[in-house]
């Protein structure tokens, strides 16, 4: 048997291990982000509430097997009572008269012998409802994965842009050194050096802007996962993953359990129209008691077996079954709409994947060409063949080519994980 205490202890130790490892290495993975965002989401507390509700409901339903006790009392006044009259008078014979005001207080204990499966089906219904409520929460929490993807890959994009900006800065610094040598020798104007220095300042401004944006994104991610993320936090670049496999979204499981719940509703409908058999014991005190010839207060008891079969449910049974069939068809329509919309999203995402893969192939060729042109321009600048503006043009052209590849590479990676999210392949995170 599964021990709930061991499960809670395992979850606690797992959470502490992840947090400790994260604090030590300051490296955050996409899978850690999924899990931490899930555990930090306020709606996660709903799981415990659903579990408690299930336990209470099941316990209450199971008490239907216990003896049922009821206490009743009544005081009545009748307009007429039974009278005993003989056609001829018999000397010495006198029959008691029964009072028109009558009183009765009694308690009854009944024990179910056969309930047609009512209690068992009610317990099954409560458990099924708990599963459906849990899956509804899971559907809402699963949407967090999309938010994690947007923020996580946004930070990775900024990281790559910061790296490229640093490379651009080095290229410009190299140009500054070369042109400064010409200025010192009197073979170049000072304005040529100022042009490169101004461009160098722009790269520093760009670095400041990118770092500020990264901090903002990092703060959002920290708020999402419930962690204080320092600026030195490193986000591990996810590996390319396989996209093979069928759709495994929590919504699909919810539709399945909703259909199963309708099966249970059909069982409850059948149980409702079955006969019920129970043993009962009734003891009380009243006037008159069981002996109507005694007009005084007397104790009494009755015991036996009682059969109860209500046939009124048969009046609505046909319509009740039609409602269940209608609800079943409604669930089928909802699932078809969900699958249809999800497949549309997948087609668009797969088209984006193909487009980005092709763009990356051409990006590599463009970068190789731009790098060759920039290297030639650097040599020409050193030999005084071109001016600083010509050199900057080629440097910026290569920078733009590399930025395009960075953009397409991160977009491809993000699109891959978006497809995983749409398919439900990271549902176990």
From TrEMBL:
The keyword Thylakoid does not apply. Residues 1-23 form the signal peptide. SUPFAM superfamilies: Outer membrane efflux proteins (OEP). Pfam families: OEP. It is found in: Cell outer membrane. The keyword Nucleotide-binding does not apply. Its main location: membrane. One of its GO terms (cellular component) is efflux pump complex. Keywords: Cell outer membrane, Membrane, Signal, Transmembrane, Transmembrane beta strand, Transport. Belongs to the outer membrane factor (OMF) (TC 1.B.17) family. This is Outer membrane protein TolC. The lineage of its organism: Bacteria, Pseudomonadati, Bacteroidota, Cytophagia, Cytophagales.
